[in-house]
Design goal:
408 residues; 2 domains; elongated; alpha/beta; Rossmann fold
């Protein structure tokens, strides 16, 4: 599942909103991801952006009329709907939402949606007053009841100079919901906790002890789990990364704060993956005011932070899976196996931090996965693909997966 979009047939319905021009960038990005994109435009959408733009970006003809689009005895709305892996309507105007909610089929887009059995994602974009109108709100409820996925609009200044809810959602968020719709939902029903990033242990208001962790691996794990249907909570230390769409983010600073947050949320989770690089020690004393350099004691007295993974292992419930991470520069298998047993883990991923391309802050990774049954070296790849491979292994260990294997 390295590229979930490659080869997928994605129908994008563009309706008459000023936000239509933003979707051109979405089509371009999906084409770069090797998706097979077909664009359907309502007549009013063509008033805001030319069909030729979408044709050039997607590499495919753009459909605008129900009958002129038909070729060689095929009916466009049937063929588009039947062949689609997913349908995305963006921007979705109040008018189009009303039509879909009430089963209207008076143009190529609405008939395509009625004819498809693929998932449908709807991205509302309109004036904030139109969006908040009871009729629109009721129609959105209807869409959800019909099984459509409605992505909430963003809040901000709009072309009409009013500010509020109604802006087209950001592509980063929409892309994740698309990826989810195209991914196996093998984590559906699982409540998942992932930790990520470093912790900061303050010396004074200006200084702290920390490490080089960027949080990229933990955030990739959270993103991948959401795509696969999990209900994900991400407990993160300080990071510059944006929270993945659909993920509940809990921000912490220190190891003690992470300890409290993790133990609180872990009680309700079936899978816990602790990818955070938690500081082992903190300064014994934290100064209320900044210490001037001439008064700094060159000897730093430290005290040990709680071992979160060890405590999770002690409290692990029956049926709960616990996955740890270890950053090592030598003896990867020996050190990983020791931690696996000492901390009562089901699985541990060992990072080789002696190599720049798989260490802290890198975009790529190659981990050694160790379980009670042995060790497996994952391929060198992106951190998101590494996350997918780890989840593949976790899924195989879930009780439901074991039951299915026995029944099969």
């Amino acid at each position: 599942m390295q590229n979930v979009f490659a080869g997928k047939k994605i129908v994008i319905g563009v309706t008459g909103s000023i936000a239509a021009f933003k979707v051109a960038g979405w089509v371009s990005d999906l084409a770069k991801e090797e998706a097979l994109v077909s664009v359907v435009m309502t007549p009013s959408a063509t008033k805001f952006i030319a069909p030729l733009t979408f044709a050039a970006l997607s590499g495919n003809d753009v459909s605008t009329e129900m009958f002129s689009a038909a070729k060689e005895d095929t009916m466009a709305h049937i063929s588009l709907g039947r062949e689609a892996d997913i349908v995305l309507i963006a921007p979705a105007t109040a008018n189009t939402i009303a039509k879909l909610a009430n089963g209207f089929a008076d143009d190529l887009l609405t008939t395509t949606v009625l004819a498809t059995r693929a998932g449908v994602l709807v991205c509302p974009a309109m004036n904030s007053r139109m969006y908040s109108h009871p009729a629109t709100r009721q129609n959105i409820v209807k869409l959800k009841e019909l099984g459509y996925t409605v992505i909430d609009p963003a809040c901000g200044m709009m072309a009409c100079k009013e500010e509020g809810d109604g802006r087209l959602p950001e592509w980063e968020e929409v892309k994740e919901y698309l990826a989810k719709s195209l991914s196996p939902q093998d984590l559906q029903g699982q409540r998942i906790l992932v930790t990520a990033g470093p912790t900061r242990e303050p010396l004074d208001p200006a200084r702290f002890l920390s490490n080089r962790s960027s949080g990229k691996m933990g955030y990739a794990l959270a993103r991948s789990a959401f795509r696969r249907g999990g209900a994900v909570t991400l407990v993160s230390g300080p990071s510059t990364l944006s929270c993945p769409a659909g993920v509940n983010l809990v921000k912490v600073q220190t190891a003690v704060e992470m300890y409290d947050a993790v133990l609180d949320h872990a009680r309700h989770c079936s899978v816990v993956i602790k990818a955070a690089a938690v500081a082992d020690y903190r300064p014994e004393k934290m100064y209320e005011h900044k210490v001037k350099k001439e008064h700094i004691d060159t000897r730093l007295i430290l005290e040990r932070n709680p071992d979160i993974l060890l405590e999770l292992g002690k409290r692990k419930k029956a049926g709960q899976l616990l996955v740890g991470f270890a950053a090592e520069s030598k003896n990867l298998r020996q050190e990983g196996t020791k931690k696996l047993h000492n901390k009562n883990l089901d699985l541990i991923a060992v990072n080789d931090i002696s190599v720049d391309r798989t260490g802290f802050e890198a975009e790529t990774n190659q981990v050694l996965l160790i379980s009670a049954s042995g060790a497996e070296s994952l391929p060198y790849t992106s951190k998101l693909h590494t996350a997918d491979l780890i989840w593949d292994r976790v899924v195989s260990l879930l009780p439901a997966s074991a039951e299915k294997a026995e029944q099969g």
